[in-house]
Design goal:
Number of strands: 0
Pfam families: Annexin
Protein name: Annexin
Number of helices: 10
Organism: Escallonia herrerae
Radius of gyration: 17 Å
Helix content: over 70%
Distance between the termini: 48 Å
Keywords: Annexin, Repeat
GO molecular function: calcium ion binding; calcium-dependent phospholipid binding; phosphatidylserine binding
Order of helices and strands: HHHHHHHHHH
Length: 147
């Protein structure tokens, strides 16, 4: 029943919250074992339930941790939807310690127009910034023209 599913998601969210307390991901082995069998739809429902229970966006929490913790980045990429994950990769490619054209080109040049529109929207929501303007400010010459 839907009530049982809601309770199950609430328990899963309690587990996730316990893993992220104090901005440190703990229980790495348990967290990996928790995430591996779940599909994208199940993860999306868990993220929604987490937001309802804790009034926080789990992806934002992970996004803040991911620059300092590689494991947090892995968890972020596993939980996020494709367009959010591509937006994060593109953002890192543009604003990391150096511009990573290879990753930026892969995201921009291998996604469909529809996917790129979804990525632009996710990028705008997550980073309060314009994807195309950021690309223009971080690239030059023929790369700037193509991208």
């Amino acid at each position: 029943s839907s009530s049982q599913a809601s309770m199950k998601h609430a328990l899963e969210c309690q587990f996730l919250n316990s893993c992220f307390l104090g901005s440190n991901i703990v229980n790495r082995k348990e967290l990996v074992e928790f995430l591996i069998p779940r599909n994208s739809q199940q993860l999306k429902l868990i993220c929604q339930t987490y937001g309802s229970l804790y009034n926080r966006d789990i992806l934002s929490d992970l996004s803040e941790m991911r620059t300092a913790d590689v494991f947090a980045n892995v968890i972020y990429l596993r939980i996020s939807e494709a367009q959010e994950h591509d937006a994060a990769i593109a953002r890192d490619a543009m604003f990391g310690w150096r511009v990573n054209l290879r990753n930026l080109i892969e995201v921009v040049c291998t996604r469909s127009s529809s996917d790129l529109n979804s990525i632009k929207q996710a990028y705008r929501v997550r980073y309060s910034s314009n994807f195309e303007q950021d690309i223009a400010s971080k690239t030059a010459g023929s790369y700037k023209e193509v991208l």
